Amino acid sequence: MQDDKLDLNRQHQQSKKLAFNFIKAQILVTLLLSAISLFFDVVTAYSAFAGGFIATIASAWFAYKVFRVGPESAAEIMLVSAYLGEIYKIILTAALFICAFVLIKPVSAVALLISYFIVHMTPAMVSSLGSESSDIKIKRER
Fold first, then answer.
1. Angle CA(5)–CA(63)–CA(98) in degrees, nearest 5?
2. How far apart are CA 99 and CA 119, in angstroms?
3. Contact 90/59 with Cβ under 8 angstroms?
4. How far apart are CA 82 and CA 88, in angstroms?
5. pLDDT tens digits, one per residue of 82-125
């Protein structure tokens, strides 16, 4: 019983660390896209930054909502926390998009939306790259 609890805590900490790494990767990609966009013009650069910022803040909020519930909590509480986190993430994303289009003048909608999509997909890209390297490591061990 005690081993199961330790294993759950270890899994929770590993998942939390992975989520934090995804958010760091999103920040890095946001800054990289903004720097590359600076070669076009300043409006494109800050629009790209805004799009990446929206994706990163929403992901960080979701991670906060999910991981504030500990592994010792009931499954129903964890599930409710995940669902509420996703609902709030969608609302926060919509609110941030509205703020970006209303408050940022001028804004490059194309740069904002493309950078949002790229940064939003960053965890999936990092995860797939990470799983390929771990697959290679497993094959070498055999």
1. 165
2. 18
3. no
4. 10
5. 899 899 999 999 999 999 999 999 999 999 999 999 999 999 88
User: How many whole angstroms separate alpha carbon 27 and alpha carbon 59?
Assistant: 11
Give the torsion sign (CA, 87, 88, 89, 90): positive
Torsion angles phi and psi, residue 69, rounded to 5: -90, 125
SS3 track for the chain: CHHHHHHHHHHHHHHHHHHHHHHHHHHHHHHHHHHHHCCCCHHHHHHHHHHHHHHHHHHHHHHHHHHCCCCCCCHHHHHHHHHHHHHHHHHHHHHHHHHHHHHCCCCCHHHHHHHHHHHHHHHHHHHHHHHHHHHHHHHHHC
Asked if 85 contacts 66 with a C-beta cutoff of 8 angstroms, the reply is: yes
Q: Are 56 and 32 in contact (CB under 8 A)?
A: no
pTM: predicted TM-score of the whole model, two decimal places: 0.81
Residues 40-62: pLDDT tens digits? 999 999 999 999 999 999 999 99
Tokens in use for 38? Answer: 């600076």
**Token pair of 82 as six digits:** 């995940």
